[in-house]
Known about the structure:
The complex is a heterodimer. By secondary structure, chain A is mostly helical. Chain A has two domains: 1-58 and 289-301; 62-265 and 304-431, no CATH class. In chain A, 79% of the residues lie in helices and 0% in strands. Chain A has 22 helices and no strands. In chain A, helix 5 (80-91) runs antiparallel to helix 6 (98-114). Chain B has helices at residues 4-36, 43-64, 80-115, 126-153.
Amino acid sequence: xxxxxxxxxxxxxxxxxxxxxxxxxxxxxxxxxxxxxxxxxxxxxxxxxxxxxxxxxxxxxxxxxxxxxxxxxxxxxxxxxxxxxxxxxxxxxxxxxxxxxxxxxxxxxxxxxxxxxxxxxxxxxxxxxxxxxxxxxxxxxxxxxxxxxxxxxxxxxxxxxxxxxxxxxxxxxxxxxxxxxxxxxxxxxxxxxxxxxxxxxxxxxxxxxxxxxxxxxxxxxxxxxxxxxxxxxxxxxxxxxxxxxxxxxxxxxxxxxxxxxxxxxxxxxxxxxxxxxxxxxxxxxxxxxxxxxxxxxxxxxxxxxxxxxxxxxxxxxxxxxxxxxxxxxxxxxxxxxxxxxxxxxxxxxxxxxxxxxxxxxxxxxxxxxxxxxxxxxxxxxxxxxxxxxxxxxxxxxxxxxxxxxxxxxxxxxxxxxxxxxxxxxxxxxxxx
Amino acid sequence: xxxxxxxxxxxxxxxxxxxxxxxxxxxxxxxxxxxxxxxxxxxxxxxxxxxxxxxxxxxxxxxxxxxxxxxxxxxxxxxxxxxxxxxxxxxxxxxxxxxxxxxxxxxxxxxxxxxxxxxxxxxxxxxxxxxxxxxxxxxxxxxxxxxxxxxxxxxxxxxxxxxxxx
Lengths: 432, 166
């Protein structure tokens, strides 16, 4: 068996294991270990597994993951999302579909502190869904607004997916955070535009209540503490004052202090947040350790280089190759979980993408958008399941039908990223 | 001998403490650097060690609580017995992996002891870090073994899992 065939067989075996409901980390690790044994023999494979796992766990740069997860868990535990929704709600009073727009805006703002789409969707469902049901919004439309808004957490910094992408692609996390900011805002505006377009059919008439512009602005200023956390942590990275690790620590610490000062966070709540952060972070680290072994194997089979050579020999245009990669991501996103998808695909695709002259930072943003699309694409959109799990009366069919129009927004953003790469590359060029 | 729940809880607390230490170390480093231009000596090492502790001690509660990410599309098509068998394979694979990892780590750990490798800032002997990782790993093996035996005893039971959906 040639090395190339072995590489392809390994990738195939890994997908079979995933479909046979083996944990993502285990599927990656097993294929990586067996592949390395076949390629290099047992002594080299054990050495790679032992030192690789230890080095991953001791990697200072990766400490940013648990710290940003902690910041998100503390923010979730101290009811920050409720206050952001309340502010956005007052601001959109009198607008048709105002509650839907408010949930998208609050999700975007919460994503800027939280960094997790799942946590954003979960907390926003508890807060916004009952309000929208009470106001007479159609269930599918309400659920879709929350699911779409929740997915923004992946793109708007801090994004855990981008941190992980940065570690695989050896790309600066600061540059990735800068690159994803404008596309994140554009996506939020696109979701809002779709929400407004659908509001005529799916939303009740706007409230007759009158709210002055001064009251609206005042409402937006009320959750200033959260803006402060975001400005200090993410702004600190943009300004070059903090490294991502420092920003994550300051952000987490700031969220804890604000939570305690405002009495929205108790000691028990803090312990729960820390323990939840351990579970989430370690589940991610297990995948990263497995993915490191898998990537070791894939790199040695020279699978990415062989695929690149095949594409170049077939004289495929860069646009066609990228189109194929995007199509693969979209198909995988229908079935795979986001972080696993990034760790499985990026080691294979990144050399091809850079080989065709595309920027790895731009590709990181594209991957984040595609993962985001996967989060709300039926049949396995994580955010859709999260919402369904919290609303017993909601049928999955209603959620699926409701989300379809919203899928146009990330698709449009992907097209925009291809047409105007500066959408992602301009800010990092200005800042760094 | 510790029960699985107690051991997992202790490991979970140790891993939780490690995150808090990480956060406080970096915050102190930043504050002291900006306020007094005197960063915390060894902050880089402390954060690295804390991460190591968090990862190796935090894996046990992940395995015990089945918080791993699993693609469970197949669940709706398979009878409970087949599903139970696939879960048993996952538990068995987890145990095999941790044992293999322990074996793989022995060589580099022995080298670190023999050659007297030390950490960059604080000069901590590297073998002590390997030793910490081995303690965490021993807990992981124990939890994985308990899960495997528990799964074997209740193979037909497929409703109590807390695995994370995709």
